[in-house]
Write a structure and sequence with these properties.
about 280 residues, mainly beta, Jelly Rolls, nine-stranded antiparallel β-sheet, seven-stranded antiparallel β-sheet, 4 helices, about 35% strand, Polysacc_lyase_14, Polysaccharide lyase 14 domain-containing protein
Protein backbone atom coordinates (compact mmCIF):
# COMPACT_ATOMS: atom_id res chain seq x y z
CA UNK A 1 0.00 0.00 0.00
CA UNK A 2 1.33 3.40 -0.93
CA UNK A 3 1.91 6.08 1.67
CA UNK A 4 -0.38 9.07 1.74
CA UNK A 5 1.86 11.91 0.59
CA UNK A 6 0.80 15.47 1.27
CA UNK A 7 1.05 18.10 -1.47
CA UNK A 8 3.48 20.80 -0.37
CA UNK A 9 4.10 24.36 -1.49
CA UNK A 10 7.60 24.69 -2.93
CA UNK A 11 10.23 23.99 -0.24
CA UNK A 12 9.79 24.15 3.54
CA UNK A 13 12.21 26.20 5.61
CA UNK A 14 15.57 24.52 6.08
CA UNK A 15 18.13 24.71 8.83
CA UNK A 16 20.26 27.82 8.58
CA UNK A 17 23.26 25.52 8.19
CA UNK A 18 22.13 24.26 4.77
CA UNK A 19 22.26 26.22 1.53
CA UNK A 20 18.76 26.01 0.05
CA UNK A 21 20.24 26.15 -3.45
CA UNK A 22 21.77 22.70 -2.85
CA UNK A 23 18.42 21.08 -2.04
CA UNK A 24 15.78 19.89 -4.51
CA UNK A 25 13.99 16.81 -5.82
CA UNK A 26 15.73 13.86 -7.55
CA UNK A 27 15.51 14.04 -11.32
CA UNK A 28 16.58 10.42 -11.79
CA UNK A 29 14.85 7.08 -11.38
CA UNK A 30 14.79 5.50 -7.91
CA UNK A 31 18.17 4.02 -7.05
CA UNK A 32 16.80 0.47 -6.62
CA UNK A 33 15.95 0.59 -10.35
CA UNK A 34 19.41 1.77 -11.40
CA UNK A 35 21.72 -0.43 -9.30
CA UNK A 36 21.80 -4.23 -8.95
CA UNK A 37 20.80 -5.63 -5.56
CA UNK A 38 23.78 -6.94 -3.61
CA UNK A 39 22.32 -8.00 -0.26
CA UNK A 40 19.02 -8.43 1.59
CA UNK A 41 19.66 -9.06 5.30
CA UNK A 42 16.72 -10.01 7.46
CA UNK A 43 16.13 -11.21 11.02
CA UNK A 44 17.12 -14.82 11.58
CA UNK A 45 14.76 -17.45 12.98
CA UNK A 46 16.04 -16.88 16.52
CA UNK A 47 13.23 -16.41 19.03
CA UNK A 48 14.50 -13.12 20.50
CA UNK A 49 14.82 -9.90 18.56
CA UNK A 50 18.34 -9.46 19.90
CA UNK A 51 19.60 -12.78 18.56
CA UNK A 52 17.62 -12.40 15.32
CA UNK A 53 19.51 -9.16 14.70
CA UNK A 54 22.92 -10.51 15.68
CA UNK A 55 22.56 -13.50 13.39
CA UNK A 56 20.59 -11.99 10.52
CA UNK A 57 22.51 -8.72 10.25
CA UNK A 58 25.88 -10.14 11.32
CA UNK A 59 26.48 -7.44 13.91
CA UNK A 60 28.24 -7.19 17.25
CA UNK A 61 27.68 -3.46 17.67
CA UNK A 62 24.27 -2.78 19.15
CA UNK A 63 22.30 -1.13 21.92
CA UNK A 64 18.74 -1.57 23.17
CA UNK A 65 18.19 -4.74 21.14
CA UNK A 66 17.77 -6.94 24.21
CA UNK A 67 15.38 -4.56 25.95
CA UNK A 68 13.32 -3.07 23.13
CA UNK A 69 13.23 -5.28 20.02
CA UNK A 70 11.07 -8.26 19.14
CA UNK A 71 11.11 -10.35 15.99
CA UNK A 72 8.01 -10.28 13.77
CA UNK A 73 7.24 -13.34 11.69
CA UNK A 74 6.31 -13.09 8.03
CA UNK A 75 2.67 -13.52 8.96
CA UNK A 76 2.79 -10.48 11.21
CA UNK A 77 4.52 -8.25 8.67
CA UNK A 78 2.33 -9.35 5.77
CA UNK A 79 5.34 -8.86 3.50
CA UNK A 80 6.35 -12.48 3.02
CA UNK A 81 9.43 -12.04 5.21
CA UNK A 82 10.15 -11.35 8.90
CA UNK A 83 10.72 -7.95 10.44
CA UNK A 84 11.53 -6.14 13.66
CA UNK A 85 9.29 -4.31 16.12
CA UNK A 86 11.09 -1.62 18.11
CA UNK A 87 9.55 -0.44 21.36
CA UNK A 88 9.81 3.03 22.87
CA UNK A 89 8.65 2.80 26.50
CA UNK A 90 6.79 5.73 28.04
CA UNK A 91 9.07 8.54 29.15
CA UNK A 92 12.00 7.62 26.89
CA UNK A 93 13.91 9.72 24.39
CA UNK A 94 17.65 9.77 23.59
CA UNK A 95 19.60 6.57 24.38
CA UNK A 96 21.88 8.78 26.47
CA UNK A 97 19.08 9.15 29.02
CA UNK A 98 17.25 6.72 31.30
CA UNK A 99 15.02 4.84 30.84
CA UNK A 100 16.27 3.38 27.57
CA UNK A 101 13.98 3.54 24.56
CA UNK A 102 14.47 2.44 20.99
CA UNK A 103 17.43 0.47 19.66
CA UNK A 104 20.43 0.58 17.37
CA UNK A 105 22.93 -1.60 15.55
CA UNK A 106 25.34 -1.48 12.60
CA UNK A 107 25.39 -3.85 9.64
CA UNK A 108 28.21 -3.87 7.09
CA UNK A 109 27.48 -6.11 4.06
CA UNK A 110 30.75 -7.49 2.65
CA UNK A 111 29.43 -6.87 -0.86
CA UNK A 112 29.36 -3.14 -0.09
CA UNK A 113 33.05 -2.94 0.87
CA UNK A 114 34.79 -0.03 -0.83
CA UNK A 115 31.60 1.41 -2.32
CA UNK A 116 31.64 5.10 -3.24
CA UNK A 117 27.98 5.13 -4.22
CA UNK A 118 25.24 2.91 -2.91
CA UNK A 119 21.53 2.59 -2.30
CA UNK A 120 19.53 1.18 0.59
CA UNK A 121 15.82 0.59 0.94
CA UNK A 122 13.67 -0.59 3.81
CA UNK A 123 10.07 -0.48 4.94
CA UNK A 124 8.77 1.20 8.08
CA UNK A 125 5.32 1.04 9.68
CA UNK A 126 4.28 3.38 12.49
CA UNK A 127 1.64 2.03 14.87
CA UNK A 128 -1.94 3.11 13.98
CA UNK A 129 -2.16 5.38 17.03
CA UNK A 130 1.43 6.61 16.88
CA UNK A 131 2.16 9.96 18.55
CA UNK A 132 5.10 11.60 16.74
CA UNK A 133 5.71 14.11 19.59
CA UNK A 134 8.62 16.38 18.46
CA UNK A 135 10.46 13.77 16.44
CA UNK A 136 12.76 10.79 16.38
CA UNK A 137 15.47 9.01 14.42
CA UNK A 138 15.24 6.46 11.62
CA UNK A 139 17.93 4.27 9.96
CA UNK A 140 20.26 5.40 7.18
CA UNK A 141 23.58 4.67 5.50
CA UNK A 142 26.92 5.38 7.16
CA UNK A 143 30.65 5.26 6.67
CA UNK A 144 33.65 5.12 9.01
CA UNK A 145 32.87 5.77 12.67
CA UNK A 146 29.28 6.90 11.93
CA UNK A 147 29.47 10.17 13.90
CA UNK A 148 26.27 11.25 15.67
CA UNK A 149 25.10 12.66 18.99
CA UNK A 150 26.81 16.02 18.58
CA UNK A 151 30.15 14.58 17.45
CA UNK A 152 32.22 16.57 14.96
CA UNK A 153 32.87 15.40 11.39
CA UNK A 154 36.30 16.08 9.97
CA UNK A 155 36.22 14.29 6.62
CA UNK A 156 38.25 11.35 7.90
CA UNK A 157 36.23 9.95 10.80
CA UNK A 158 33.11 9.11 8.82
CA UNK A 159 29.55 10.27 8.18
CA UNK A 160 25.97 9.21 8.88
CA UNK A 161 22.81 9.82 6.84
CA UNK A 162 19.91 8.95 9.13
CA UNK A 163 16.37 10.17 8.62
CA UNK A 164 13.99 11.67 11.14
CA UNK A 165 10.29 11.83 11.70
CA UNK A 166 9.10 15.16 13.10
CA UNK A 167 5.83 16.56 14.45
CA UNK A 168 2.74 15.32 12.62
CA UNK A 169 4.85 12.79 10.71
CA UNK A 170 6.98 15.23 8.73
CA UNK A 171 10.04 13.54 7.21
CA UNK A 172 13.55 14.93 6.86
CA UNK A 173 17.16 13.99 6.19
CA UNK A 174 19.41 14.29 9.25
CA UNK A 175 23.03 14.19 8.03
CA UNK A 176 26.29 14.21 9.93
CA UNK A 177 28.71 15.35 7.22
CA UNK A 178 31.51 17.92 7.05
CA UNK A 179 30.14 21.30 8.09
CA UNK A 180 26.65 19.98 8.82
CA UNK A 181 26.51 17.91 11.99
CA UNK A 182 22.86 17.17 12.70
CA UNK A 183 21.35 19.57 10.15
CA UNK A 184 17.64 19.45 9.36
CA UNK A 185 17.36 19.02 5.58
CA UNK A 186 14.07 19.18 3.69
CA UNK A 187 11.78 18.95 6.70
CA UNK A 188 8.22 18.33 5.53
CA UNK A 189 9.25 17.17 2.04
CA UNK A 190 7.07 14.14 2.78
CA UNK A 191 4.81 12.92 5.58
CA UNK A 192 4.76 9.48 7.19
CA UNK A 193 1.30 7.94 7.54
CA UNK A 194 0.43 5.62 10.42
CA UNK A 195 -0.73 2.02 10.32
CA UNK A 196 0.74 1.11 6.93
CA UNK A 197 4.06 0.15 5.42
CA UNK A 198 6.12 2.86 3.73
CA UNK A 199 9.16 2.14 1.55
CA UNK A 200 12.17 4.42 2.03
CA UNK A 201 14.98 4.47 -0.54
CA UNK A 202 18.18 6.36 0.13
CA UNK A 203 21.06 6.90 -2.30
CA UNK A 204 24.50 8.18 -1.31
CA UNK A 205 27.16 9.29 -3.80
CA UNK A 206 30.39 10.23 -2.06
CA UNK A 207 32.29 13.34 -3.04
CA UNK A 208 35.70 13.28 -4.66
CA UNK A 209 38.23 14.28 -1.98
CA UNK A 210 38.92 17.98 -2.40
CA UNK A 211 35.54 18.64 -4.07
CA UNK A 212 32.10 19.39 -2.65
CA UNK A 213 30.23 17.15 -5.07
CA UNK A 214 28.60 14.54 -2.85
CA UNK A 215 24.90 13.74 -3.22
CA UNK A 216 22.12 12.29 -1.05
CA UNK A 217 18.70 11.35 -2.45
CA UNK A 218 15.47 9.98 -0.98
CA UNK A 219 12.40 8.36 -2.52
CA UNK A 220 9.22 7.46 -0.60
CA UNK A 221 7.18 4.63 -2.08
CA UNK A 222 9.02 5.25 -5.35
CA UNK A 223 8.24 8.96 -5.39
CA UNK A 224 11.26 11.34 -5.53
CA UNK A 225 11.07 13.67 -2.52
CA UNK A 226 14.52 15.01 -1.59
CA UNK A 227 17.96 15.58 -3.05
CA UNK A 228 20.84 17.34 -1.35
CA UNK A 229 23.91 18.20 -3.44
CA UNK A 230 27.33 19.78 -2.82
CA UNK A 231 27.99 17.54 0.20
CA UNK A 232 31.45 16.88 1.64
CA UNK A 233 31.42 13.40 3.13
CA UNK A 234 35.18 12.92 3.11
CA UNK A 235 38.60 14.41 2.56
CA UNK A 236 40.30 11.04 1.96
CA UNK A 237 39.55 8.30 -0.57
CA UNK A 238 40.00 5.66 2.15
CA UNK A 239 36.60 6.59 3.59
CA UNK A 240 33.80 4.73 1.79
CA UNK A 241 30.21 3.60 2.42
CA UNK A 242 30.07 0.82 5.02
CA UNK A 243 26.42 -0.04 5.49
CA UNK A 244 23.34 0.35 7.66
CA UNK A 245 23.21 2.53 10.78
CA UNK A 246 20.02 1.23 12.37
CA UNK A 247 19.21 3.92 14.90
CA UNK A 248 15.75 4.73 16.19
CA UNK A 249 14.53 6.57 19.29
CA UNK A 250 12.55 9.66 20.27
CA UNK A 251 14.72 12.75 20.37
CA UNK A 252 16.73 14.88 20.79
CA UNK A 253 17.12 14.91 24.52
CA UNK A 254 15.00 16.27 27.28
CA UNK A 255 11.43 16.27 28.50
CA UNK A 256 9.88 17.75 25.36
CA UNK A 257 11.11 14.89 23.17
CA UNK A 258 9.96 11.99 25.33
CA UNK A 259 7.12 9.73 24.29
CA UNK A 260 4.20 10.12 26.72
CA UNK A 261 3.25 6.41 26.47
CA UNK A 262 4.52 3.05 25.26
CA UNK A 263 4.80 3.06 21.46
CA UNK A 264 6.33 0.96 18.68
CA UNK A 265 7.45 1.08 15.04
CA UNK A 266 8.01 -1.89 12.70
CA UNK A 267 10.89 -2.32 10.23
CA UNK A 268 11.40 -4.88 7.45
CA UNK A 269 12.62 -5.59 3.91
CA UNK A 270 16.15 -4.17 4.07
CA UNK A 271 17.87 -4.16 0.69
CA UNK A 272 21.28 -2.92 -0.46
CA UNK A 273 22.17 -1.92 -4.01
CA UNK A 274 25.41 -0.76 -5.59
CA UNK A 275 26.88 -0.35 -9.08
CA UNK A 276 28.64 -3.38 -10.47
CA UNK A 277 32.42 -3.21 -9.82
Amino acid sequence: MLATLVALPAWPALSEEVDEASVGVPQVEACSQRYPQIDSPRPSHAASGHEAIREGFDTHRHWGTEENVERLGAGHTGLGEPGLRVHYPAGTSSPGEDPLGGAGFYSEPPALAGAEQACMSYQVRFAPDFDFVQGGKLPGLFGGEAPSGGESVDGENGFSLRLMWREHGQGELYPYVVGHEGASVGRGSWYFPVGQWVTIEQEVILNDPGSENGVARIWIDGRPVLEQRDITYRTTSSLTIDGLMFSTFFGGTGEGWRTPRDQHVDFAAFRFYAPAP
